[in-house]
Amino acid sequence: MNTLIQLIFGLLAALIVGSAVMVVSVRNVIHAALWLIACFFGVGALYLLLEAEFIAVAQVLVYVGAISILILFAIMLTRESEGSRYMVSGWRLVVTAIVCVALFGAVLVPTIFTHTWNVPPPPVATPGSPAPPEVLAGVEDLGRGFVFSYMLQFQVAGVLLTVALIGAIVIAFEERARRRRVLTLAEEHEVRKRQKPARPPVTGERTPSPQAAPMSDGEQG
Amino acid sequence: MTNAIPLEAVLMVAAALFCIGLFGALARRNMVSVLMGVELMLNAVNINLVAFWRYLEPGFVVGQTFAIFIITVAAAEAAVGLAMIIAIYRTWLTSNVDNVASMKG
């Protein structure tokens, strides 16, 4: 039983970390969003393994159902036509990597080596009777907590959501008179070329194919 | 379950996820990619909260409550952030972080 749990945990950890690496490293933004969905599913499964069922369901509903769809729509609405430099390069990339690895080490060294976690031991089976079940706070306790102990915080969270969503509508709202015609990628390219004549335009990164790179080089020249 | 997986293993996964998300938020140039990195970091924090709840205080609801509130704040943050990305794209016709530098001192 323990081996099975450890195996599942290892697979889930590999899924989570692997898909997160793909999210930050893959070139196409749409592919990154799809890897993000895989990562969210892995995290939800990890919640299930940690016996937090309600959080797992909320994770799948909110993250996989809402946030990833929102991200996909935002990607489609903001078509990128200069994706060739999708990541910082040079010393900025080096500094960023150093900061992340240093943070990982700085968090991990005390966690594993110096700090002792006072994890209470699980109930053991006495000879003659099975192990008593561990007391776990379930969905019922969570609902009771929201209605009684955390009533004010619950209401504040509701107000926060309302304010944020109204704010999002106000920010993204566009008056009908100012609404511009949706440009095709070629027209947008022309606009960009007029706006920034100094910078050589780069094309063909939406579908990174072997033919795209020589074409863009030819246009630059 | 708690004797099969040590707490440190779960914390290691969360720390790795947080650092990968931080790298994505700092290194990517597309605004949506930056937001995806932030989402990864929020997920890592949530894993930590749930793990601490499960291992240290399994009988109380405080840890799960924290996780629910973090999910709420993440949803609000994603909505406002993506609306701002769309507004910025309308104004500057770009979704690259480096091109939006009008407040740079």
- The name of the CATH architecture of chain B is Orthogonal Bundle
> What is the assembly state of the chains in this entry?
heterodimer
* SSE sequence of chain B, one letter per element: HHH
Radius of gyration of chain B: 17 Å
CATH top-level class of the domain at 1-81 in chain A:
Mainly Alpha
Largest interface: A-B, 95 and 76 residues
Average pLDDT of chain B, rounded to a whole number, is 90
Give the biggest beta sheet of chain A.
Answer: none
Question: Quick one: overall form of chain B?
Answer: elongated
Kindly report the average pLDDT value of chain A: 82
Q: Which fold name fills CATH's third level, the topology of the domain at 1-81 in chain A?
A: Four Helix Bundle (Hemerythrin (Met), subunit A)
Strand content of chain A: under 5%
Strand content of chain B: under 5%
Shape of chain A: extended
Work out the radius of gyration of chain A.
25 Å
Q: What is the count of DSSP helices of chain A, taking H or I runs of 4+ residues?
A: 8
Helices and strands of chain A: which structural class?
Answer: mainly alpha
Helix fraction of chain B, binned, reads over 70%
The total domain count of chain B is: 1
| CATH superfamily label of the domain at 1-81 in chain A | NADH-ubiquinone/plastoquinone oxidoreductase chain 6, subunit NuoJ
Subunit structure (chain B): NDH-1 is composed of 14 different subunits. Subunits NuoA, H, J, K, L, M, N constitute the membrane sector of the complex.
GO cellular component, one term (chain B): plasma membrane
Subcellular location (chain B): Cell membrane; Membrane
GO molecular function, one term (chain B): NADH dehydrogenase (quinone) (non-electrogenic) activity
Can you describe what's shown?
- The complex is a heterodimer of chains A (221) and B (105).
- By secondary structure, chain A is mostly helical.
- In chain A, 66% of the residues lie in helices and 0% in strands.
- Among the domains of chain A are: 1-81, NADH-ubiquinone/plastoquinone oxidoreductase chain 6, subunit NuoJ (Four Helix Bundle (Hemerythrin (Met), subunit A), Up-down Bundle); 138-179.
- Chain A contains eight helices and no strands.
- In chain A, 18% of the residues are buried.
- Residues 207-221 of chain A have low confidence and may be disordered.
- Chain B is mainly alpha-helical and 105 residues long.
- Chain B has a single domain (7-99), classed as Helix Hairpins (Orthogonal Bundle).
- Chain B has helices at residues 7-27, 31-56, 62-92.
- Chain B is elongated.
- The mean pLDDT of chain B is 90.
- Classes of the chains: A mainly alpha (221), B mainly alpha (105).
- At the A-B interface, helix 1, helix 2, helix 3, helix 4 and helix 5 of A face helix 1, helix 2 and helix 3 of B.
- Chain B: It is an enzyme of class 7 (translocase).
- Chain B: Keywords: Cell membrane, Membrane, NAD, Quinone, Translocase, Transmembrane, Transmembrane helix, Transport, Ubiquinone.
- Chain B: It is a multi-pass membrane protein.
- Chain B: InterPro entries: NADH_UbQ_OxRdtase_chain4L/K (IPR001133), NUOK/Mnh_C1-like (IPR039428).
